[in-house]
Design a protein that fits this description.
Protein-Tyrosine Phosphatase, Chain A, peptidoglycan synthesis, cell division, alpha/beta
Length: 480
């Protein structure tokens, strides 16, 4: 299906087009570009103009550029604009203007990507859904996601993030959501904000881009909920709160975790909604209530939404649960792994630790007779001067006190390591590579292991090391 013609790209961007072409997709990376894509030569860590020739060689339909790059013919298929970033934003706006899709915007300190994927799953029960495959939520990710939107999409889910003040509102105004959601406000990116209230004001600015008659959905369980509520009242036709607190419009009355699932009951306008999620975690259940609130305000079939919710499960690095078979000859010799290694801040770590503390373990199946709950935690980044104290404070959580061992990675996590009592203190290493080399020896059948940290800590290497235990690579020296 044609996504962009040369004439449409010229009209959208105000640029000069060479050649007559059609594009089936939009790409910013020659490593993943597909034949027929429009290549956008963004300038970030490297200048995308240096890769235009390669993109065309790989079959790109055309390239969006600010100049004709060296080595590229003058008559090559191009869209020449004054500024490539502005050109991409123009494509995003034009795509948004022509679509008939209902657009949902999602932001939050925690859970925006998993909630985006939950929305993708549930809305897919009602029609065709467009959403980014990755966390494309920044100044280029949002317009890129919009520019890639198929003409026939019935729903679009746009994730919007930030690192500094003033980033969310402009992106929301490009996306123009019919429904905008704030999952949670938590200490994250504190280096760029003076307080948690500052973060709340920034998150609430997603409501500034709402379409006329739009709906604001916001977390009603927070110390900063009043800020979200006030902004919603200013910008939205309808304001809907969700959470466990009395007074929430979509109130989660109960959450029960068992057998790797969560079963929750929510109340909306006096009616009850019972739903299941294919993952343990109260935080997933509460965000699930927000997703169901989206479906309600869009007047979608409730039975289809509830059924689709039960099919959602988190992806790799987002809380996915994996069973590791340690001995092919013994089906009971398994280890449970929670891969939550993609991101971390105090709120998300606390939520994951609560899931781990409640997880069932197996006894008398390994060298260590008692199955254990084990956390592997990496540094939480961008917390500013409060970072050391916020790391150390994890030791005081009830969930942490319910664990058997906590292993720590990174200089900031040294603060937690030092705050732990001796019986709970595991290993500490500066790098994930060192932890990956040593951790498997500490694990055994029957254990439940959760790995979580900021992406830059590269804890995926620790996850891979645990996964590789199924190949018999771990030595026989697990601790008792």
């Amino acid at each position: 299906m044609t996504l962009w013609t040369s004439a449409e790209a010229a009209a959208a961007t105000g640029g000069r087009v060479t050649g007559d072409w059609t594009a089936r997709g939009v790409s910013i990376d020659t490593r993943t570009i597909q034949p027929g894509d429009l290549f956008v030569a963004l300038t970030a860590a490297r200048d995308g103009h240096d890769f235009v020739a390669q993109a065309l060689e790989k079959g790109a339909a055309a390239a969006l550029v600010a100049r004709v790059p060296e080595g590229v013919a003058e008559d090559a298929p191009l869209v020449i604009v004054d500024d490539v970033q502005a050109g991409l934003e123009a494509l995003g706006r034009a795509s948004r203007a022509r679509t008939q899709a209902k657009v949902v915007g999602v932001t939050g300190s925690v859970g925006k990507t998993s909630t985006k994927e939950m929305l993708r799953t549930v809305l897919s029960a009602h029609g065709t859904v467009h959403a980014a495959e990755a966390s494309y939520n920044n100044h280029w990710g949002v317009p890129l996601t919009l520019a890639r939107m198929p003409r026939d999409a019935e729903f679009a889910v746009i994730e919007i993030g930030m690192n500094h003040p003033g980033e969310i509102a402009p992106l929301s105004r490009i996306a123009r959501p019919h429904v905008a959601m704030v999952t949670i406000v938590a200490p994250a990116h504190l280096e760029a904000f003076e307080s948690i209230d500052g973060i709340a004001h920034e998150k609430a600015s997603i409501f500034d881009g709402l379409e006329p008659g739009g709906v604001a959905i916001w977390n009603g369980d927070l110390p900063t909920s009043r800020i979200l509520q006030a902004r919603a009242a200013e910008t939205a036709q309808l304001s809907v709160s969700f959470g466990e607190s009395e007074g929430c419009d979509m109130r989660v009355a109960s959450v029960r975790e068992s057998d790797g699932h969560s079963v929750a009951q929510a109340v909306l306008d006096g009616g009850e909604l019972l739903y299941k999620i294919d993952a343990p975690g109260r935080h997933f259940a509460i965000n699930g209530a927000a997703v169901l609130a989206v479906c309600e305000v869009l007047e979608l079939d409730r039975a289809l939404s509830l059924a689709a919710m039960g099919r959602w499960h988190p992806g790799a690095g987002r809380g996915a649960h994996v069973t590791i078979q340690l001995d092919e000859a013994d089906p009971n010799a398994t280890l449970a792994l929670c891969d939550d290694a993609y991101n971390a801040n105090p709120a998300s770590v606390a939520a994951s630790l609560a899931v781990l503390a409640a997880a069932p373990v197996q006894h008398d199946v390994g060298r260590v007779s008692k199955g254990r709950r084990i956390a592997v935690l990496g540094d939480m980044k961008e917390l500013g001067p409060t970072g050391p104290d916020l790391h150390a404070a994890l030791a005081d959580l009830d969930a942490t006190k319910a664990l058997d061992k906590v292993h720590c990675v990174g200089p900031l996590m040294r603060n937690l390591y030092d705050a732990l009592p001796d019986e709970r203190r595991g290993l500490w290493f500066e790098t994930s590579d060192d932890m990956a080399a040593r951790l498997p020896r500490q694990l055994d059948a029957g254990d439940v292991v959760m790995v979580k940290g900021s992406l830059s800590m590269r804890l995926a290497r620790v996850v891979d090391a645990i996964r590789n235990m199924s190949q018999g690579n771990a030595r026989d020296d697990a601790e008792g």
